[in-house]
Design brief:
The protein is α/β, with parallel strands linked by helices. The protein is built from ten helices and twelve strands. A twelve-stranded mixed beta sheet has the order 7-8-9-6-5-4-3-2-1-10-11-12. Helix 1 (47-59) runs parallel beside helix 2 (78-86), helix 2 runs parallel beside helix 3 and helix 3 runs parallel beside helix 5 (139-150). The chain starts with 13 loop residues before the first strand and ends with a helix. It binds S-adenosylmethionine.
Length: 329
């Protein structure tokens, strides 16, 4: 099949698939303390529906698949889906983003099903501050989940993602940098984006990757490592060779020009940008018996409308039509 290319000439190689909008955490920068209705069960794509769409995308050259949510590990039988996707022709890189709280039980079946890469979100190594940000007292379980993941050499790299919020993260930086030095984890700081359900985000709340890098370099000099052109992260190794750190800077250093990603929500909507205001429904045609050729045409049509860039720092910026946990981060 022809590759999937948008109107700006960017070839789509990566899809993030949300397998559920449900989450067992309530991170302040993502979800409200309470509320936020879950999707009705029949609105959520089945494993077979996800498999069919990912198979079609893979045939068009989308070889990188990341499962996310909500919290993907709360979706029942997730290893079954991993097995189905791992077996698809053309899926080269199958990974998962999780809060890690159920990983102690699930790492083994996920690896057995074919998972080869994992990102665990972790914003603080202090029990009190972890609970403050996630509204859950679960730090030990997340660290236990990471330790379990570490037992499987097939599952590499293990990345630890921290959302950087001004006034909170500065104090966490030394311990998180130290984690990258003492454990086989690549720790990555991600700039806070206006995707929180509470709509509390202000530009001043963004602690930039540059600022965090300066904090780390006060103690440990860093050396930049070349990254793939489509990579969202700038990569650095510690000059003394002790580990790797990354910075995902969508606000201070947008990488839209090299964006090769699309997203599929749990209810079967295709999104061509995190900040899209428009979504393309695939569930209804899927359930109405659309042929592969019809679905392919829909996918190509949606991708042709992929946004040139997000407009976070521009005057008149309008927020995305859904918040992060509903989109799939
Ligand atoms: N529950 C899983 C997890 O915790 O990784 C997967 C879904 S979560 C929405 C995916 C990632 O988005 C997490 O690393 C989370 O920290 C990040 N995230 C959520 N809200 C964000 C925001 N407003 N700005 C930047 N990153 C955010």
């Amino acid at each position: 099949m022809e590759p999937l290319v948008d109107s700006w000439g960017r070839e789509i190689r990566s899809v993030r698939v949300s397998v559920t909008d449900k989450c067992n955490f309530r991170c302040r920068y993502c979800m409200p303390a309470e509320g936020l209705d879950w999707l009705p069960r029949n609105e959520v794509l089945s494993f077979e529906e996800i498999e069919r769409l990912v198979g079609l995308l893979a045939a068009m050259g989308v070889d990188e698949v990341r499962l996310t949510g909500g919290e993907p590990l709360v979706r029942r039988e997730l290893p079954v889906l991993i097995g189905k996707l791992a077996a698809l022709d053309g899926v080269r890189d199958l990974s998962l983003t999780t809060n890690g709280v159920l990983l102690d039980r699930l790492a083994a079946p996920l690896v057995a099903a074919g998972l080869r890469r994992i990102n665990v979100s972790l914003d603080s190594l202090s029990h009190v501050r972890f609970a403050e940000i996630t509204r859950r007292d679960a730090l030990d379980r997340v660290l236990g989940g990471l330790a379990e993941a570490e037992r499987y050499p097939e599952l590499r790299p293990i990345k630890v993602n921290c959302v950087a919020v001004r006034g909170f993260t500065e104090a966490e930086v030394p311990a998180l940098a130290e984690l990258a030095r003492r454990k086989p984890y690549v720790v990555r700081f991600i700039e806070f984006m206006p995707l929180d359900a509470d709509e509390a985000w202000r530009e001043d709340d963004v602690l930039s990757g540059g600022e965090i890098r300066a904090l780390i370099e006060e103690r440990w000099p860093l050396v930049e490592v070349p990254a793939k052109a489509s990579s969202t992260a700038r990569r650095f190794r510690f000059a003394d060779g002790a580990g790797e750190i990354g910075f995902v800077n969508p606000v201070s250093e947008p990488f839209c020009s090299a964006c090769d990603r699309i997203r599929l929500t749990a209810d079967g909507k295709l999104r061509t940008c995190l900040f899209s205001r428009r979504e393309w429904d695939l569930k209804e045609p899927l359930r109405a018996g659309a042929s592969d050729a019809e679905l392919e045409a829909l996918l190509r049509h949606a991708v042709a409308h992929k946004e040139l860039k997000h407009k976070i720092s521009e005057p008149g910026f309008v927020r995305a039509s859904r918040s992060m946990s509903q989109i799939g981060g």
